[in-house]
Known about the structure:
Endonuclease, Chain A, alpha+beta, 38% helix
Amino acid sequence: MYRPGPAPPPSSEVVRARFRRQGRRDTAHELAVRRRLHARGVRYRVDVRPWPRPEARPERARGEEDGVLTGCFWHGCPSCGHLPRANRAWWAAKPAAHTARDRRADAVLTGLGWRVLRFWEHEDPDDVADAICAALGRPAPSPPDR
């Protein structure tokens, strides 16, 4: 399997600053989904390692169901992922390596009896929460009274 190797130097200070600001967890989308799940009574642990190997640290909802919110840029989203112009060869390999690691983690988790649900960061947080609740066998929330 090809791994892209160390990151090339940033093409500018603006790019360097942008990537330094990029969080690894607790993104706005993750927090929005977590708020919706919590409001629906779904409890979970964040950044859990289900086994000693580091392939995945899913958010674990009670009921042995796990959702991993996948970043569109870093994991090569087919609908909104894009490659930067600078260092194109390296950036072409990076999301491919992440996707391959994701598939390996899915296989390991599934082999341990977990059900893995992956969602893209561009997906509507309400839709993601609905899908997680459906996988947990929880009823959809009632629409608000008008």
